[in-house]
Each structure stands twice: as C-alpha cells, then as structure tokens.
Write a structure and sequence with these properties.
Blueprint (H helix, E strand, L loop, with lengths): L32 E4 L10 E3 L2 H8 L22 H10 L5 E5 L16 E3 L12 E9 L5 E12 L4 E8 L6 E2 L6 E2 L5 E7 L4 E7 L9 H4 L20 E6 L1 H7 L7 E7 L1 E2 L2 E2 L2 E3 L10 E3 L19 E7 L10 E9 L9 E8 L9 E8 L9 H5 L3 E5 L4 E5 L9 E5 L1 H4 L9 E5 L2 E3 L2 E4 L40 E5 L5 E2 L14 E4 L14 H4 L18 E3 L2 E3 L3 E4 L2 E4 L3 H4 L3 H5 L13 E5 L29 H11 L11 E3 L6 H14 L3 E4 L22 H11 L6 E5 L2 E4 L6 E4 L1 H15 L8 H4 L10 E5 L5 H9 L3 E6 L3 E4 L15 H19 L8 H20 L3 E7 L7 H5 L6 E6 L22
C-alpha cells in the first residue's frame, strides 16, 4: 500500500498488513483420455471427472455384461464396457480422467443400411410372402357390443423375412382354429398363445403368455427379450432365435380395459405403413426432450378455446435431456409447480421447475433438482433460462469439432432449457405463465370395421397371402372366416400413450394441492407402484429414419394436451377434463380469471416426461463397436467407425482437452488405433496405449467357443510388424487379463490396455511419471497395481514368448507361481533405438515439456530482453533441478542468451532457448556372476 493512501491528520503510527505469502492456485491435475461405452452420461464429447465416485455418478458403474437384466430395455448390459474399467483402474490411484462416452452416429454421407446408426431387423417389405419386421400384439375388449377397443400391448421383432408372429386360437366369431396374422382369436381368460413360425410351417415358439406380472406366464418372462440372440455373428447356432420381444405396454392395457382382467380377444399384425417399417430404428443418437410448455388462455371468450391454437396460447419453453440418448427419459420427469401470477400490473409471475425421479409418485415425491421462483422475465436474475441453463454442443463435421451454443451456463445436471424466441426477446405479455404442455407424439389411432379396408394412414400393414397368413392383399383385419370377413364389428385401434392423472382423488395424496396433473408412472390410477413399461412408451417411435420424433407427421398425433385451463372442481376433488374450458365448466372458465388456480383449491402443477431419446446403437450386437464391424470399413460404411473417429477428433486439440495418456480399450482396428496414435503425436503431450489384433477375441467379436478366441503371441507380433509403426508416443501390452468386478462380483476378461493404464496410475501415486510402470514394485497386478483385482492372464507366457514380445516392442504381462501376475516391460512402439523407446522416458518428456510450456506462456508479449530471459531461467532451472532430485534426470542444461536468441530472432519477435536433458534410465536387465571358489581361496585376491 502506497504511503499516499494513508490518511495523516494528527500524529501517530499508521499500520497496514500486506500478505505476500499467498500460494498460487494449484492447477487441476491432468489425466488420461479414455474412449468407451458406459451406462449413461453425456456422449461423444469429453467430460472430465475428478474421482471414481464422480465417474459413477455421471457415467454409471462399470458394466460386466453379466448383469441379470432385461436386455431389450437395458441393452448397455449386453457386453462388457471396457472403458468403464479403464476409468476405475486409473481413478483408484489418481484424481483426474477425461471420458468420452460412445454412442452411435452416422456419417452425413453414410452408405444406406450398412452405414446407418441404430438397428433394424429383417425388412418386412422384402418378400411378397410376408414375414420379418415388427409385429404388434393387439388385445381387444370383447365386452362391448359391436364396437371394440383394440390396444397395442406388445411388439415382437422377426429377424427373418419368412418368419412371422401370430396368435393361435379359435376365430371370433366362430370355432375354426387358426394361427394366422390379422385374424381375431379368443383368449383363455387373458392367456394368449403366441406362435412364431416360418412360411414353411416350422414352429419356433408356441407359448402361452399373459400380462400379469406376478404370473409365470408373464410375457416378458416367457418370450426372448435379448436382441443379441437373433444375431448369428455373436450367438451360436444352437442358441439362435429368430425373434425377440420388444416393447410391452402394461399400464396402457390397464387403461384400455384389455389387460386380461376381463374377457379379451387378440390378433397380431405387421406394423408399418407406406415406406415406414416398424422393425427399423436407424438414426444417429439423439437426446430426449419434452413437449413445448405453453401459457394459459388470457381470452375471456372460452367457448372456442383450443390448446393447440397459437392464437390463444403462447409457446414458452421446452427441456432437453443432458445425459445423452435414452437414459434420462426412463429415470427423471419434470414438474411445473407453485405457479403464481404477478401481483402488479406489469410484473412477471413465478413458478418452480422440479426434476423428479421417474419412479416416484405424488404421494411420495423424490426430488433430484428444483429451481424455485423462476420467471419468464429475461432481465431478471430469476429468469428460468439463467437458473437452469441453455448451453449445448453441436458437432461440426466440416471442422471436425464441437461448437457451443447458448447463453447461460447449465446449472441442471439433467436438463437444459430451450426458450421460445418471443420469450427471450421479451415481446410476450408478462402475465403469461406456464399452464400446459404438449404431449408426446404417437402413432395415430384409427377406426376400422372388420373385413373393411384400413385407412391409408393406419400404422398396420397386413401381409400378402402365404401358407400361414390370411389372404390380406385387400388390407383387412378379419373376424370370423377369412373369405367372409366375419361379423360386422368396428375396431377402435389405439396406440400407446403416456398415462395421465385425471383426478386428485386417487393415489393417497394428502390434499388437493399435493397432486400434479399430467403424467402418471404407476401401474394403475391410484396405485403407488412404479410401472416399468413407461420406458417403452417413451422410446423413440417406429420408423425412426422417416418419422419426426418431436412433431406429428403424416401418421402421428399428439398423445395429449395437458393444460390447467381444463381443471374442474368436483366436490372434494379437482378433475382434469379435456375440453372443459371450452365447455365453460373449468375453474378458469367459471371464474373468468386464471388467478383462481392459485388459491387453496389449486392443483400443485403438472408433470410431463422426456421422450424420444435414442442411443443410435445396434442392440443386436453384444458390443456395438466390435472390431469386426470397423475393420476394413470407412466412416461412410460403418456408423461404429464414424462414431469412433468423432470421439477421437473431439479430443485432438490440446487447447480443448488436456491429457497425458489416451486409450480406447478393446479397439484393435489398425486404422482407428493409428488415428489415435497420430493424434497423440500431433499433440505431443500424450502417450497412446493401444490394444493389438491377434490376441483374445472378445465375446462381441464372434460366436466361437472360448478356446477358439484366445489368440496367440505369434499372431499379435506378426500383425504389429505388418503395420510398421515407429513411434515413441505409443505402447502396447499382451495378453488380456481377468479381473473380479467389485460391483457384480463376476469375472470379466479385460484388454491389456486397461491393466497398462492402471499400472501407470499406480506408478504416479507411488513414485513419479518418469519411473518405469513395470516390475514387481509398481507393476504387480496381483498386488493391485492395476487398481483392479487381477486374478488371471488368458495366456501364461514362457520366457521365449516374453523375449519375442519384447523384441517386437510389446510389453509382456507375465504370471509367476510365487510372485503372481506382473507387467514385465515398458517399451514404446519406437523401433529406432534411443532413450525414447522406453515408456518412462516418453512420460518424462511429456511432463517436462508441459511444465516448461506453462512457464513460457507467461512470457508471451513480454519485452524480448535479457531480463525476461532470466525470468524464464529462474523458473525453468528450479523445475528441472527438482525433477533431477526426484530421479527423473541425471543432468540438464538450459541455454538462453544471445547465442540462441540472436538479434535476427529478436527482430522477428522470437525468444529461443535450448534445453539439454539426460533422462534417468530404468534397470531392465540385471547380470549377476556367482563365482564358486575352492575352500582355501582368499576373497582378498
């Protein structure tokens, strides 16, 4: 503090305290980049975590591929996710890791079918004889007279063009037995006989099922729900199925009155229309999102109110899931609560946005995030977009990088908000409040009479006649004898939609204000048990490649429009009746004021889902990024190949992502591992740990027996030599190792890159990056050096094999009877002999270059004078002295003077220094002579 800043008036002693002992901020630790699959989390972009606990919170626990789950609903568990084990291996001993979660993304110029992300079963339009594609199982309410509700209850996917699904039983009306598609049959008190056959009459499935979850005949217990069992590439012939059960809509059947609790009929029919095939889900990954939230009706003329009319209401905002793909929509939902109008003539009202767990209910609310006192005023610090956040990243394929959009940092871990432009531009009335929401788009319901031709927009596509199909070339569904068309019954065919709360008088809520209208996630109205089938309703729709997921198309409609303007007061309860405002019976219509919904009789708010998210992965694969699907392929011909290149390119810039190691565990395709190695060389600050072809072939790579997938030392060496790699920025290990998974207690074979990464983390913790990550002190895998419980190697290497591997620059993982399993090598992939052909020296150079670069950056735009040069030396020399004292260097020298930074360079604004380093070498070979002497020999001699 300058003496001029003291205020001297009368004599005295003036004291000021100056603290120059403040320590500089410690930079965040730099760790590896790992590219791989995970259960959840942001995808296809780098996300840095600081601990394994944080990793699990963001990306989920490691996946062993042995978990006992419904594989259609949870396809991520179909095979091991090696990247998650790599994260565990590193973070057990170190503090920072950047993870890039893989999902499916097509190249913009993809090759049709082969290059498209997602999945598809055999095309139901491929053969004139029918079969293949998706088959809907429809249950029909038989109690009504002449007019029946036919609700879609389940979808079965056939993976052969000649295979179809039918319901077996007696035709309705009549007694003739059939097992055909598009024909109505009677069920046995809700028990339905499902038949899967081919056109030659061969039967693959003949099973009785129902929709009672507690029954042994429950459809998801009886039928195959594992999509990988239709894939002959990964499933042995003896275990192969031709179908799998997809979605089931249990709650929807309850609401339609055809869940088996009363007499029902049933029929199956192919799903599709025009160019839309119900068995196709081919598109790049996309995030889930909600429908648009809209305002109340400010007009006093309620008679012609239509919530779909933009002249009476205004769009306000919608939400997008931040955890990419399908995961969010099955785990969380959104409520708008505590809606309060303004108390002034010009001010904005207030409301709360609450992110709730999907499996809670209004009597047992579980809040994961909440944002209170939100407003639609862009000038307020409580502006809803500022409180929640609206930033997102979009991939620019031309520049091969992500571009960030949005104004406000994301505060929510689950959603970001998208504001309508009229709201963000503040051109709407400040009196507007969030009052309703557009429902999820669904395939449109339609009405058809038995034996009559279906509407053109119907999402049912009867097949042409064949041996085991009714003659449905005239686009009909039959009740009774096929040739006669059966009795005159009318079918109201309905497709699933989100179940809704229609009254506050159910569900054990404490009072009127404790219930939210809108989405319900329980098994029935009034139930408090979570309905697992809700995730099937929220999935991206059929025909994903040609049908918009978020606005009604030619065959779609909104499932509902929830608006508080349609809430009525009925005695002691509030009821939601669509159209009640137009009828003049709703609270806002009767009172003539929207403020009526803020009193003691007002509902708590309304709840709605995220929907339409898609992972873009082939669920018929145990490993969607299997090397057999990328080897010899290109970005256009393989979505897996393109997805991996996007993931790698997202971390290629050191200005965006800091890193010291990069790895893609389990990926052995030469072109892809070479691309990652090239990125590490270009950055010059990261070591690429790659896995090599020729070793163990993982479960997702084929259907061979275990013994036929082990691989060999010779094949791995030959493959690597054929690639002619000569780089100190890469390294490789051999063979695969088995670990005991700490979450599932199962045994999992993992790639050697995971063990190598774990040993480097252990080395950093116990010593320094420039110590060799090998040997029994730091590389003992049995002793936990990998951060994982390694129990076995897939191949025990003898001395000759270890020699062959080391000569080929592959680091052996050896197993000894006494010492256990150990990493017994630390070579890089550099063929040219030099100090850099060892991992410890390469990691030393990565560390030193990074630290010296940090020092140099602080001198940019400083005067190019000897005083500045000395500042550099004053910081660089102590750094290198410290590294030398910690056994990284045997000596060093820095030259920065007029001999390096010459007048010519000064004129060109260049400071130039030379740094000479003598790296400390590791002991890799120990030679000991044991000399045996005679008894009388003197040791002094």
């Amino acid at each position: 503090m300058s003496v001029k800043k003291f205020k001297f008036v009368s004599p005295g002693v003036f004291i000021n305290e100056i603290d120059n002992s403040q320590l500089p901020a410690i930079p965040a630790p730099i760790g590896p980049v790992v590219i791989g699959r995970s259960l959840r989390g942001p995808a296809m972009r780098p996300v840095t975590v600081g601990s394994f606990e944080e990793f699990v919170n963001v990306f989920g626990p490691p996946i062993a591929g042995t978990e006992n789950v419904d594989r259609f609903r949870h396809p991520a568990y179909s095979g091991p996710a090696y990247g998650t084990y790599a994260a565990q291996a590193w973070l057990r001993n170190s503090d920072s890791l950047t993870y890039v979660r893989l999902l499916g993304k097509s190249d913009p110029s993809f090759t049709a079918d082969s290059g498209e992300a997602g999945w598809a079963v055999a095309d139901s339009t491929a053969g004139a004889s029918g079969g293949g594609g998706a088959y809907g199982l429809f249950l029909v309410n038989s109690a009504s007279n002449g007019n029946h509700t036919a609700a879609l209850g389940a979808v079965l996917y056939m993976n052969a063009t000649s295979v179809y699904a039918a319901v077996s039983g007696n035709l309705i009306p009549g007694t003739a037995a059939t097992a055909s598609t598009c024909a109505m049959v009677a069920t046995d008190s809700g028990d339905i006989k499902i038949v899967v056959q081919n056109n030659a009459g061969t039967t693959y499935v003949n099973s009785t099922v129902n929709f009672s979850r507690n029954s042994d005949k429950y459809i998801r217990k009886v039928l195959n729900t594992n999509p990988t069992k239709v894939n002959s590439e990964v499933t042995p012939a003896g275990s192969l199925d031709y179908y799998f059960l997809g979605e089931t809509y249990d709650r929807f059947l309850v609401d339609a009155g055809v869940d088996g609790s009363n007499a029902v009929w049933a029929f199956t029919a192919p799903l599709g229309t025009g160019s839309i095939d119900g068995g196709e889900r081919q598109k790049s990954f996309q995030n889930s999102q909600t429908g648009w939230v809209f305002s109340q009706d400010l007009s006093t003329n309620y008679a012609d109110y239509d919530p779909n009319s933009r002249t009476r209401t205004a769009l306000l905002f919608k939400f997008h899931g931040r955890q990419t793909g399908e995961y969010d929509q099955g785990k969380v939902k959104v409520s708008i609560e505590n809606i309060r109008p303004t108390k002034t003539t010009e001010g904005y009202g207030r409301f709360s946005v609450v992110i709730r767990r999907m499996d809670d209910n209004d009597a047992r609310v579980v809040v994961v995030e909440r944002f209170d006192n939100c407003t639609l005023n862009p000038a307020s610090p409580n502006y809803v977009a500022e409180k929640i956040g609206d930033r997102y990243n979009s991939w620019n394929n031309d520049d091969r990088r992500y571009v960030e959009y949005g104004t406000y940092d994301n505060k929510s871990s689950y959603v970001r908000i998208e504001m309508d432009l009229d709201v963000s531009d503040a051109v709407l009335s400040p009196h507007l409040l969030p009052y309703g929401v557009y429902g999820q788009p669904k395939f449109a319901n339609f009405v058809v009479a038995s034996g009559s031709e279906m509407p053109a927009a119907a999402f049912i596509k009867p097949e042409s006649g064949a041996a085991n199909h009714l003659d449905s070339t005239d686009n009909k569904i039959y009740m009774g004898h096929a040739a006669e068309g059966g009795a005159a019954h009318e079918l109201n065919i309905q497709f699933p939609q989100v179940p809704l709360r229609t009254t506050t008088n159910v569900g054990a809520v404490s009072n009127l204000r404790a219930a939210c209208f809108g989405m319900q996630t329980t098994r029935a109205s009034g139930s408090q048990t979570f309905d697992e089938s809700i995730q099937d309703v929220l999935r991206a729709p059929f025909g994903l490649s040609t049908v918009s997921a978020f606005s009604p198309g030619a065959y779609q409609e909104y499932s509902d429009f929830i608006t508080l303007d349609d809430v009525e007061l009925d005695g002691g309860s509030l009821d939601y009746t669509s159209g009640s405002r137009a009828a003049g019976t709703s609270l806002t219509a009767v009172s003539g004021a929207y403020s009526v919904l803020t009193g003691t009789s007002a509902p708590k708010g309304f709840t709605f889902p995220l929907f339409g998210g898609f992972d873009g992965l082939d669920i018929t694969e145990k490993e969607p990024f299997a090397n057999r699907n990328t080897s010899g392929e290109s970005e256009k011909s393989s979505y897996a190949y393109h997805s991996l290149t996007v993931a790698m390119d997202s971390v290629k810039s050191a200005e965006i992502v800091e890193s010291n190691i990069m790895t893609m565990p389990g990926i052995t395709t030469a072109a892809l591992t070479k691309r990652l190695l090239d990125i590490c060389e270009a950055r010059a600050d990261s070591l690429c740990i790659m896995d090599l072809a020729g070793g163990y072939s993982a479960v997702g790579e084929g259907n061979s027996a275990f013994n036929d997938r082990v691989g060999s030392v010779t094949e791995s060496i030959t493959t690597l030599e054929g690639r002619a790699i000569n780089s100190s920025y890469g390294c490789a290990f051999y063979p695969w190792v088995r670990i005991k998974d700490s979450f599932t207690d199962s045994n999992v074979w993992i790639p050697p890159s995971v063990a190598g990464l774990g040993v480097m983390s252990n080395t950093d913790k116990k010593a320094e990056p420039w110590f060799a990550p090998a040997g029994f002190t730091r590389g003992g895998l049995t002793q936990g050096a990998a951060g994982l419980a390694v129990t076995q190697v897939i191949e025990k290497l003898i001395s000759r094999q270890r020699d062959d591997l080391y000569e080929a620059n592959i680091n052996p993982i050896a197993s000894f009877p006494t010492e256990g399993i150990v990493v017994l090598g630390q070579k890089t992939l550099q063929v040219t002999p030099s100090a850099l052909d060892r991992i410890n020296v390469r990691r030393l150079m990565i560390f030193v270059k990074r630290e010296i670069s940090f020092i140099a950056r602080t001198l940019l735009f400083e005067p190019n004078l000897s005083a500045t040069w000395q500042r550099f030396l004053n910081r660089a020399e102590p750094l290198l002295t410290d590294v030398k004292g910690r056994y990284g260097l045997t000596d060093f020298k820095i030259i920065l003077d007029e001999t390096t930074t010459t007048p010519e360079l000064i004129d060109r604004n260049i400071m130039y220094a030379k740094i000479y380093l003598k790296p400390a070498r590791a002991i890799e070979f120990i030679a000991l002579d044991f000399v045996i002497t005679n008894t009388g020999a003197s040791f002094e001699d």
